[in-house]
Amino acid sequence: MEELFGFVFRLIVQGVVWLLVECLFWGICYYTGWVVCKVCTLGKYPTQPLSLKGMVNSYPSARNRLSLIGLMFLVLLIVVLLVLN
């Protein structure tokens, strides 16, 4: 019985962690990357941000690219803030 509770608890914790990582990565990093690309290309790329429905149906490479650009920008921002502080 204890093993069953341990399994269910681990499953719930993994689900919550997965959900948080997905929301942070796709939610925050994607839109940050979208803004950074929009500013760097003077408004030419990307044409419009994806909605939640559009993210599911879009090409994963473009979605991943914008998310990674956003993640790199956020990491760089944190490093700069730590160095200047």
Helices and strands in order, then pairings?
Elements: H1 2-40, H2 52-57, H3 60-84
Total beta strand runs = 0
Beta-strand content: under 5%
* Spans of at least 5 consecutive residues with low confidence: none
Instruction: Give the overall pLDDT as a whole number.
Output: 84
Number of helices: 3
What helical percentage do the residues reach?
A: over 70%
**Could you tell me the radius of gyration in angstroms?**
17 Å
What is the string of helix and strand elements?
Answer: HHH
By secondary-structure content and strand pairing, the structural class works out as mainly alpha
Largest sheet: none
Give the termini separation. Answer: 52 Å
Shape: elongated
Summed up, what is this model?
The protein contains three helices and no strands.
Any key phrases for this structure?
85 residues, mainly alpha, 3 helices
Describe it:
With 85 residues, the chain is mainly α. The protein is built from 3 helices and no strands. The protein is elongated.
